[in-house]
């Protein structure tokens, strides 16, 4: 199956456009950028999606749709062949060859021969799209089949090259209760590995769970970040997540940045 599918591409572009326009004010959307401008930034249309490679597609999909409330855009899969292999994995394959190691032994799947396959699902949130990817052996079923490679253990944001997904929480939502309910709803589905940090130290998992409700969020009350509330959590695949509320001074800072960009785009016409 070829990944260069016009229908799929149009659907992804439409989803990306929806993700961008849901977040950017109409004044910014209405400001076209001249095609003659050479700056790379002038040729972009915003963020299309964030991607997470998962061990269990069905489990991850249940978390992002049932627990966090995203909506499925589309799913596709069984991707294999030379073109898709080179498109996604050529750099890693060349690096393995340079180190004189078998690509398979370091977790690089073989889409080229079809020994492994790639499945994807896209999930829409209010202002962003998340793509779930699973690499599996061809003998494994789509969805809940075993993943081809073991998960990386280094998902902490402290590590260079690591990434995370950040979700907005509405301003009228009690942040502490949200975190409590996030863990509870995940546990109901067997995802006890969905865990949020606390703002106080814990010497054990039991202590973390017993921490008071008001320790589940970090509320910043000074400087330009005044009004920013956050917590970090692990998702069902061990992926790094962040949840934030933006109020007060922090909200004004971000609003001014959007307005500044609007004026910059308008002036470029």
TrEMBL record:
GO molecular function annotations of the record: lyase activity
Signal peptide (UniProt feature, chain positions): 1-30
Gene3D superfamilies named in the record: 2,3-Dihydroxybiphenyl 1,2-Dioxygenase, domain 1
Assigned keywords, A-Z: Lyase, Signal
Pfam families cross-referenced by the UniProt entry: Glyoxalase (PF00903)
Keyword Transmembrane: no
Domain called Glyoxalase/fosfomycin resistance/dioxygenase: residue spans: 47-141
Coiled-coil parts of chain: none
Name assigned to this protein: Lactoylglutathione lyase
Organism: Pseudoduganella aquatica
């Amino acid at each position: 199956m070829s990944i260069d599918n016009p229908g799929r591409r149009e659907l992804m572009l439409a989803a990306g456009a929806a993700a961008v326009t849901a977040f950017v004010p109409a004044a910014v959307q209405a400001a076209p950028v001249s095609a003659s401008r050479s700056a790379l930034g002038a040729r972009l249309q915003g963020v299309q999606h964030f991607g997470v490679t998962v061990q269990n597609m069905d489990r991850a999909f249940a978390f992002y749709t049932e627990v966090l409330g995203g909506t499925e855009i589309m799913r596709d899969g069984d991707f294999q062949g030379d073109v898709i292999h080179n498109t996604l994995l050529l750099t890693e394959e060349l690096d393995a060859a340079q180190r004189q190691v078998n690509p398979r032994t370091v977790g690089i799947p073989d889409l080229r021969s079809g020994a492994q396959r790639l499945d994807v699902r896209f999930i829409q949130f209010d202002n962003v799209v998340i793509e779930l990817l699973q690499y599996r052996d061809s003998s494994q079923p789509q969805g809940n089949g075993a993943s081809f490679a073991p998960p990386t253990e280094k998902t902490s944001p402290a590590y260079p090259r690591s990434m995370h997904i950040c979700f907005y929480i509405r301003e009228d939502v009690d942040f502490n209760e949200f975190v409590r309910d996030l863990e509870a709803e995940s546990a109901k589905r067997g995802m006890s590995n969905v865990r949020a940090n606390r703002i106080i130290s814990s010497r054990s998992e039991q202590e973390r769970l017993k921490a008071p409700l008001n320790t589940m969020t970090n509320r910043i009350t000074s400087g330009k970040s005044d009004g920013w509330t956050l917590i970090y959590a692990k998702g069902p695949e061990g992926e790094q997540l962040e949840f934030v509320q933006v109020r007060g001074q922090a909200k004004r800072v971000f609003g001014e940045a959007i307005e500044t960009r609007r004026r910059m785009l308008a002036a470029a016409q």
